[in-house]
Specification:
This is Peptidase M20 dimerisation domain-containing protein. Keywords: Cobalt, Hydrolase, Metal-binding. The chain has two domains: 280 residues, Aminopeptidase (3-Layer(aba) Sandwich), CATH 3.40.630.10; 108 residues, 2-Layer Sandwich (Alpha-Beta Plaits). The protein starts with 26 loop residues before the first helix and ends with a helix. The protein has 444 residues and is α+β, with helices and mostly antiparallel strands. It contains eleven helices and 18 strands. It is elongated, with a radius of gyration of 24 Å. Strand 2 and strand 3 form a beta hairpin.
Length: 444
Amino acid sequence: MGGLVQASRALSVRLPNTTVKRTAGAEWTIVAELKTLTSHLDWLEAQYDEMVANLAYLANINSGSYNIVGLERIAAELSHLFGGLGGQVHRVALEPTVRIGDDGEPRVCEFGPLLNVYKHPSAPLRVLLVGHMDTVFGTEHAFQRVERVSPTQLKGPGVADLKGGLLVMLKALECLERSPWAGRLGWEVVLNPDEELGSPGSAAHLRAAAGRNHLGLVYEPAMANGALAAARKGSGNFTAVVRGRAAHAGREHHLGRNALRAAADFLIAVDELNARRSGVTVNPGFIRGGGPVNVVPDRAVVRFNIRLSDPVDEAWVLERLAAINQVINARDGITLALHGDFGRKPKVLDAAHRRLFDWVRRCGRTLGLNITWRDTGGCCDGNNLSAAGLPNIDTMGVIGGGLHSVDEYVELPSLIERSRLSALLLLGLASGRCDGAAFKGEAP
């Protein structure tokens, strides 16, 4: 398919500062006031073909989390697109981190660039918009190209998670910048290259950005039925490296210390934490060790993920892991080193988050959408922002399904539907129809 279609440079028209008065608690009044903004959304309807073309173009560029060349290319394309908004565009090099390889040895993990775009940073109310450039599909994966499977569906790597959301974000901001209220709402965009890895390189940047803003919007895809994610579980990724002693399996079996057996015992003990505490789940996902069967294996590597709903559960889990680790390390000739942590804390649906959901629901009602939300066991950068004290909604992207599989698809009409939803919220905040002052007291 062809190259990117460049968006037109945003227009900025100023109107006198006005204050909107409304009857407290009158839902119909709020929706009626939001309705006055919808004429500014009409421009979005004409953006459909451009958005579909750009989505296909971006999704056809492989940007797997470890494909630095592909991420560099995506960053360049997005710098071009978001640069059309007239804000400051910065490309940020992320510091490498150390990751334990499948062989149990430390490896330096490098990341693609992070993009930071901002405009009107001195505005009294500021919103942070977050999305990721990486996908789970590496260069070796068979799923590489976009396919139009029906007039309303596009199938391809990252079309929903999250490249469709990046275009929704872009068009919503462009709509704001074309409006009479441009400049009354400050905004900052963070596009990171490592979300699918748990954002190990960009976590500090997300935390810093959360501290500069009053509320956040993350453009992960909505549920397949259009619902938004509410509370989210926290997540921890761990790797256990078990070392024993190699020996001839026949002649000197008694001299060996079997690391694979110790790793299996550790894995069973960790798995048995399931059902011990409500909301805590453990998923052993990887084990590697051994080699020729006539050699006692001296090394094994185990990877597992733990999810939890309540922040206080983290201490309980870490205590149990330490106890299991101690038991294994007490064995003669066996050592177990545990690596990892809870990179994402649980996202709790507190009062500030509920206020933001209410405003999105009202914007949806104004547009004829029934916006609902439900808790989920998944996690994303919305967890990071919440942990930094920033109320946010983290499924403002497109509607789609088949995420992280060769069946990933996007419902193309949702490109416009969700752009309108985000744009109306931004216009509501900028014009005063949405009560942004309620979030200022919640800012970190």
